[in-house]
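Case 159 in the screening queue. Each case pairs one protein sequence with one candidate compound; here the compound is zinc ion. For every case the pipeline is the same: read the inputs, emit a complex structure as tokens, and attach any notable structural observations.

Predict complex for case 159.
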Amino acid sequence: MAEDLPSQPVQADTTKDSSAPAEGYDKKLVISGPCYVLQDEDISCFRDIKPGAPHHYLVVPTKHVGNCKSLNKEHVPLVKQMVDVGKDVLQKNNVTDLADVRFGFHWPPFCSVSHLHLHVLAPVSQMGFMSRLFYRLNSYWFVAADQLIELLSSKGETN
Ligand SMILES: [Zn+2]
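Case 159 output:
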């Protein structure tokens, strides 16, 4: 799977592997572009540089938490918060049909980016063939946000 985090607006080194110490992660994100994006203490959101749909955003936690395989139950609130931010950004960009959206994560090792990032795509009905394949729900390389939350909730606290 191709690298899909924007390389331009983000000042962080996303090539670091997930075992790198969290302190070494550069939190500063520079956000640009015509769309509404946001950054707060916990979560940042920006446009994907290779949009797979008219609206395609990436929601990332500011703190480095690894990828969705390294998450567990305690990360459920974070994942939910990321989904909320994604919905908020869609609505602020006038996407009103929240049934025609896709929220999901690339499942390792099919994503070369080790920093957890939620893909938010809309409208699904306008996604091309390749995008549908790349962001296919519940394939073995892409997991829907809802499903990840369910999966994490069923995990034990300590794995
Ligand atoms: Zn991805």
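Case 159 observations:
- The mean pLDDT is 79.
- Helices lie at 76-92, 129-134, 145-154.
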